[in-house]
Amino acid sequence: MELLPTIWFIAIAVLWTGYLFLEGFDLGVGVLMKLFARNNTERRVLLNTIGPVWDGNEVWLLTAGGATFAAFPLWYASLFSALYLPLLVVLVALIFRAVAFEYRGKVDTERWRTLWDWAIAAGSLVAAFWRRRRTRPDHNRAAP
C-alpha cells in the first residue's frame, strides 16, 4: 500500500466531511428562515448567525473539489460525469444563494428584500434536497 494516496484520501475525506458538516447549518438556516422568522429583524438575526462563516464554508467545497481533482483525476472524472446534472443544479443553487446573501443587505425596499429572502430559501432548499432520480433497468426487455 502506498502512503501518498492514503494521505490524499484521508485529506479529501476530511475536506468533504468538513464542508458537509458546516454547510448543513447554513442550508438549514436558509431553508427555515422563511418559515420561522416573522419580520425583517428576525430574518436579519438568522442571517447574522451564518454571515461571518458562510463564505468560509464555500471554501471547504472548492478545496475539496480541487483536491479530489488533483489527487484522483480518474475518480473525479467518473464521479462528475455520472452526476453532472445534479451537481450542476446544486452549484447553480449555491451561486444563486450567495448572490441573494450579498444583495439582500444592499436593498432598502421591502419588495426586493422579500425577493432575496425567497431566493435564499429556494437556493438552500434545492442545494440541500436535490437528488438524481434513479431509473430502474428494464429486466423484461429481450436482449438483442
Index terms:
144 residues; mainly alpha; 6 helices
What's a quick, concise take on this entry?
The chain has helices at residues 3-36, 40-50, 54-71, 73-82, 84-104, 110-129. The chain has 144 residues and is mainly alpha-helical. It is elongated, with a radius of gyration of 19 Å.
Number of helices: 6
Tell me the major beta sheet: none
Number of discrete domains: 1
| SSE series | HHHHHH
Helix content: over 70%
- N→C terminal distance: 43 Å
Rg value: 19 Å
Shape designation: elongated
Low-confidence stretches: none
Structural class by sheet pairing and helices: mainly alpha
Output mean pLDDT: 88
Describe the structure.
The chain has 144 residues and is mostly helical. The protein has one domain. The protein has helices spanning 3-36, 40-50, 54-71, 73-82, 84-104, 110-129. α1 (3-36) runs antiparallel to α2, α1 crosses α6 (110-129) and α5 (84-104) packs antiparallel against α6. The chain is elongated. The protein starts with a helix and ends in a 15-residue tail after the last helix. The mean pLDDT is 88.
Could you give the topology of this structure?
Blueprint: H1 3-36, H2 40-50, H3 54-71, H4 73-82, H5 84-104, H6 110-129
Helix pairs in contact: 1-2, 1-3, 1-6, 3-4, 5-6
